[in-house]
Amino acid sequence: MSALLSPIKDVHSERRLFLARVVLAIVISLLLMGSVVARLVQLQVLDHELFAEKSQGNRVRIEPVPPIRGLVFDRKGRVIAENLPAYQLELIPEQVEDIDDTLNRLAAINLIEFEDIQRFKDLSRSGPRFKPVTLKFRLTEEEIANFAIQRPRFPGVDFQPRLVRHYPDGELVAHAVGYVGALSTDDLQRLDPASYAGTSHTGKTGVEGSFESDLHGDAGYRHLIANARGRQVPGDSSELLDSLPVDQVPAPGANVYLSIDLDLQRIAAKALEGRRGALVALDPRNGEILALVSAPAFDPNLFAVGMSTSQYRELSENPDRPLFNRAVRGAYPPGSTIKPILALAALDTNATSLTRKTICHGYFQLPNDDHRYRDWKPEGHGAVDLHDAIAQSCDVYFYGISGELGIDNMHDYLDRFGLGTKTGVDVGGESSGLVPSREWKKNNFRDRDNQRWYHGETVIASIGQGYMLATPLQLAAAAGALATRGERYRPHMVAAVEDALTGERRIAQPERLVDVEISNDLYWENVIGAMHDVMQGPRGTARAVGFGAPYEMAGKSGTAQVVSIAQDEEYDDAELEERQRDHALFISFAPLDEPRIAVALIVENGESGSGVAAPIAKAIMDAYLGYGDDAS
Amino acid sequence: MRTWGTVTMRLSDTQSLFAPNAPPMTSFSGILRRLHIDGPLLGGLLLVCALGLFVLYSAVGESNRLLMNQVVRIAVAIAAMLIVAQLPPDFLRRWTPWGYAAGLILLVLVLTQGDVGQGAQRWLDLGIRFQPSEAMKLGVPMMTAWYLHDRQIPPNVGQLFIIAVMIAVPTLLIARQPDLGTSLLIAASGVIVIVLAGMSFRLMLGLAVAAVPGALVLWNFMQDYQKQRVLTLLNPDSDPLGAGYNIIQSKIAIGSGGMFGKGWTNGSQAQLEFLPERDTDFIFAVLGEEFGLLGVLTLLTLYMFVVGRGLYIAVQARDTYSRLLAGSISLTFMVYVFVNTAMVTGIVPVVGIPLPLVSFGGTSMVTLMAGFGILMSIHSHRKLLPH
C-alpha cells in the first residue's frame, strides 16, 4: 500500500548503486584491517625479540618523580608556604599479597586508624598497581623506629622521604593562602594524570587552590630495573635501559609572590583574636590586597600533614566555624557603612541637596503608617544636613530621603561600587553578597504578596539593613572606590609569579574596572569630607579613634542588627545573648588626599562599629603608613 | 494517521511462526528459519563469544564468578537478539521515528538529571539504570535509513542536510555527557548510511576538505584528557606515566606473544598486572600475548566473517530501509573492531571503545546483539519477490 503512495523509485539502479557502495566498503574494511594485521606482524614477528626481552625477567619500571611545589612569599619576600622533608608511610598495591590484612595489622600497631582502612583500600584500587598509596604523611621519630623493627612483617609497605608543605605562620595565613590537602579521587579525575603521577597533594583553597597550575609544576620520571615482584634491583647492568628514553627531570612549580603584608596580617589577626570577624585591607590605587584575615582560623599544616577523621570533625563541627573564610564568603548586612555611597547616589539623582536639612527626633514614620523606624540615637540628632548625617550617622536623614531616592537608584549606585556582584578576586569561593531591587524580589519569592517591593523595605535598605548583604572584601573594594573618587581596580592577592628555574617574573597588572561617575566633583569632596569628620571631626562617631593622628583619614562605622527589635521594646544588650548582639563594621581609608590603603572589617557581635571595629582599622592604617608601634 | 490497531494487525500478519506456509519444524535448518535465526551469523557470533570467554577467563585472573557474570550477559544479549529477530523490518521501520524521538528526549534527560558515573553523565535511572546513548547506536542508523526509504537514492544536497541534522543532534548531545567515543561511533553509523546510499564522491571530497577547520573546532571542544590522548598517540614515549603507559604496556604484551603466544593464562604482562584495563578495553592485548599472532588472526577472521555475512544480508535485502540499515549495522561493527584493535596496537588514539563481544561488560553487548537481531529479521522476513 505504501509502495503505491510513494513516488516511483528506480529500484534496479538503487540496487546497483548500493552494491557498488558495499564493494567499496569491503575494500576499505580490508585495507583498515590489513593495517592492523601489518602492525601485529610488526609487533609479534619482526620486533618480537625486543618485546619478549622487555616482558620477561627483570623488567623496566617507570617511576614518577614529583615536582617541587612552588614557594609562596609575602610582599616583602618573607616565606608564607615552603616544603620541608619528612618521612611518610607508603604502600605499593602490587607488592602486597593481602591488602585487607596488611591494613588491619598496621591499624593494630596504631600507624593508621581503623576508620581510614576503607579509604586506603579504594585508593589502592583506583590507580596503577605499581603506584604507591600514602598511608601517613608525616611519621614521628618514634613511629619510624617502631616500624623499622616490624618492616619484614609488611612486604610492600615502606617509609619514604618526601617533601611536605609547611606554613611557618600557620593560622595567620590560613584564609589568605589556603592549604594543600591529599589528592582525592575527585581531584584525580580533574587533573592531568601524567603531570600528577608522583604527586600526593594539591592546592584546595585560597591561593594554593586557584594558582595550583602555577605552583604544581610537572612530574618527571626515571627508569628503574625491577625484578618480577616489582622491587627495585640496585645497580642492574641490563642493556634494556639503553633502548629506553632517557629520564626526565621534573619541572618545579613557580613561586608566587602575594601582595599580602605579613606585618599587617599579624596586627589584624591579633586584634581579632578570640572574636569572630574578618578584615580586608587593600591598596585602592591598584587593588592589591594587603591583608586578608578571617577569625577564628585554623592551622593549614593540619591539612598538609593529613589529619585523622576525629581531628577533622573537631574543625568542621566547631560552632565558630574556623574553616569558613568570612573575608570573602561571609555575607553580612553592611549597615551604615554604605551611607556614603547612598549619599552620592542621592546627590547625583537630585534626591537631596548639600543644603537640605532634616530635623531628627530619633525616629521616622511613613505617611499613614504607625510603624516607627528608629534612629540608633533614641533622643535624635536635631537639625542635620547630609554632611552631619554621615558624620553622626543619622539614620532619620537617610530614611527621609529614601522615598525620593528609591530602591532602583540605590541598587544602581551600590552596583556601580561593586556591591552585590563578585569582585573577581583571584581566590575562589567568593560570595556575591546581595543588593536587593524590585526585580530581584519578583524573581526570588514564591508568594505573590512577597514579590511586591514595599516602601518600608526601601526605608530600611537606606541604612544597609533588610535584604542587603556584603562581604568584607566587597566593602574594602567599595571603600577603595570612595578613596579614589570613583577609580576602581579588581582586588587581587597575587602580585607576581616567578619561574623557579629562570627567575623570570610575570607581574600581575592592575585591572582597572569601570569608574564610578558622579556628575559633580563637589559631591565627592562633601561626602569624603563627612567621612573625614567621622574620624577627625568634632562630632564624628569615631572621633575618639582618629583624634591626634599624624595623618588625615576617612571612615564610616556601621552596625548591623542580628535580631530585629520589636516595636515598643527597649534595646537592652545585656539581655541579648552574646551571639545575638549587633555586628560591628567599619570602612576607612587614608591618607585623605592621596589614599594608599583602604580597610574594611567586621566584628561579629561586636556591637559598636566605631567603638570596636574602628580602632582595628586605624591600627592597620598606622602600621602601613609607618606610624605604628612596630613599624619598620 | 496510523493507529495502534493496524500496527498490531500487521505484526500478526507476518508472525510466520503461526503462518500456514512456515517451514516444517523437522530439520535443524527448518527450526532456525521458523525462529528467524540466520545460521551462519549465529555461528560466527557464538564462536567470537566463545573465544572471548577463554581470553576473559585468563584476563580476570581465572575468576569463575566474573566468568559467569559474562556468560549471563552473553545469554541476555542473545535473548535480546532473538526477540528482535522476530520483529519484521516493516514493523521496525514504522516505529523508527517514534523510537528516535524518544531516544532524543532520554538523552536530554540524561544531561539534565542523569547520574554521574566516573565524571561523565551517561546513566539514566528509570527503574533500571540505562544508557540512552546505547539505544541511539541503533536509533541513528534506523532513522537515517527510514528517511531515505521512500526517497530516490542517491539523496540530493537538501536531503543530506536534513540527515546531517538527524545525525548531529544525538551526536552532540552524547558528546556533551561527555562520551566522545560513543558519539563518534554513532556519527559514523549515520555517515555510513549516507555513503551506502550513494552520496557523491565529489561531495565527500568537499566535506573532507571542509573537515580540516571542523577538526580544529572539535579540538577546541575536547576535554584536556581527550587532547592528551591524541598527543600521546603521536608520541607515546612523551607520556610514559599517564596515557602512554597503557599503549607501551599493551605493545609489550602483544609483541612478546610472538607467533604462537605464551599459552593460555601464561601471559606475564597480563598475569602480573602490568597491563591496565586488561579485562575491558585492552583485552585484545591479552589475546595477543597468550595466543600469539595465530590467536589474533583467528579472532579477526571470525569478526570479518560476521561483517561479511552482515553485508551479504544487506545486499540480499529487498527494500531501501533494510538494505541501508543492515549495511550500517555491519560496517559499524567493523568500525568497532578496527578502532579497538588499532588503539590497542597503537595505531589510533585510545578512545575507550571496548572490543565488541569480548570485553568484560554488558551494556554495549545487548545493543550489539540487538543489532544482529535486526540483521536476522531483515534476512528471514524478506519476501521472495522484489517489490
Helix content of chain A: 25-40%
Structural class of chain A: alpha+beta
Distance between the termini of chain B: 24 Å
- Quickly give the structural class of chain B: mainly alpha
Query: What would you give as the CATH superfamily of the largest domain in chain A?
Result: DD-peptidase/beta-lactamase superfamily
Task: Give the assembly state of these chains.
Answer: heterodimer
- Give the strand content of chain B: under 5%
According to DSSP, the number of beta strands of chain B is: 3
Please summarize what this structure is.
The complex is a heterodimer of chains A (632) and B (387). By secondary structure, chain A is α+β, with helices and mostly antiparallel strands.
What does the model show?
- The complex is a heterodimer of chains A (632) and B (387).
- Helices cover 36% and strands 18% of the residues of chain A.
- In chain A, helix 15 crosses helix 17 (395-416) and helix 17 (395-416) packs across helix 20 (455-461).
- Chain A starts with a helix and ends in a 7-residue tail after the last helix.
- In chain B, strands 1-2-3 form a 3-stranded antiparallel beta sheet.
- Chain B contains 15 helices and 3 strands.
- Mean pLDDT of chain B is 82; it is low at 1-20.
- With 387 residues, chain B is mainly alpha-helical.
- At the A-B interface, helix 2, helix 3 and strand 1 of A face helix 8, helix 10, helix 11, helix 13 and helix 14 of B.
